[in-house]
Amino acid sequence: MANQPNKPRSRTRRKASAQQGTAVEEVANSVAVVDEAPAGAPEAEAVATSAQGGAPLDVARAEQMAEELADLAGADTTPAPDDQLEEERIRSVKELLALGAGEVELLLFRVGAESFAFDLAAAEEAVELESVHAVPDMPDAMLGVFDLRGRLIPVYSPSAMLCTPDSPTSGVLLLMRAGERRVGIVVDDVEDVVVLEHGMLRPPPSADADGLVLGVAFFGDTLVTILDAHALVATCAAPVTAEVA
C-alpha cells in the first residue's frame, strides 16, 4: 500500500479593489444621457447630462470612465501573496501537542489484536511482506532482511516494545527512517488513515520512560494507542543494522 499524499489545506481572504469600487460608484452616480447634437453641429459639442443634478459631463470623460470600468471588470482578481492566509499543516502529534490545537493525519495499524497509530508523514511506504531472510547475529527485535526492489531492508518486529504477541513473518511492512538508513517495521495490517484532533487525545494510562506512547484516542469504538514513530524505530532498531546495498 503506497503512502497517501498529504494534501495541504489553505484558505484565501479576498479584499474588494478600492479602485474598482471608486470607478463603479462614479459611473453609477453619473449616468450619462448623451443628447443628440443639432444637425450639422460638430460631434465634439455633444454633451452628457448627469442624472445627478443635471450637471454637464464631458463625453470623452464618460467614455474613458466606461473603458476603465470594463477593464476593471475583466481584471485578474487573484489575491496578492500578502492577502493569502495559508494554514500551516501539522505533521506530527508532538507538534499538535505543542500547539494545543489543530489536527494531524495518522496511519492506523494493527499489531496482534491491538490498534496503534503514528504520524502518517513518518511512513514512507507500506508494502506487502512476502518473505524475510534471516542473517547471522541479528538483534532480538530483528526478523531478518527483505528484498525491496533490489535493496535489502532490515525488518524489525515491534511486538516486544508494544507488549503484543509476536508478529508473523508476513503482513505489511512499514518503511521508515532510522537516521540515514531505511528500515522496515512489520505489522499485521494497515487499517486506515485517520485524522486526530487535539481534543480527542488523552494522556497515556501510565508513565512511559521511553517516550514511545504519546497518548490514546478513540476512533469510533476502537481505543487506539498513539505512538511516537521515531521512538518506535529507534527502540526497534537499536543497535541499527545497516541497509545492505
Report on the structure:
By secondary structure, the chain is of the alpha+beta class. The protein has two domains: 15-83, no CATH class; 93-236, CheA-289, Domain 4 (OB fold (Dihydrolipoamide Acetyltransferase, E2P)), CATH 2.40.50. It has helices spanning 18-28, 59-73, 93-99, 159-162, 229-236, and strands at residues 11-12, 32-34, 47-50, 56-58, 84-85, 103-111, 114-119, 125-129, 142-148, 151-156, 171-178, 181-187, 189-197, 213-219, 222-227. It has a five-stranded mixed β-sheet with strand order 13-6-7-15-14. Strands 8-11-12-10-9 form a five-stranded mixed β-sheet. The chain has a three-stranded antiparallel β-sheet with strand order 2-3-4. A hairpin with a 2-residue loop joins strand 6 (103-111) and strand 7. Mean pLDDT is 74; it is low at 1-20, 30-37, 39-52, 82-87 and 240-245.
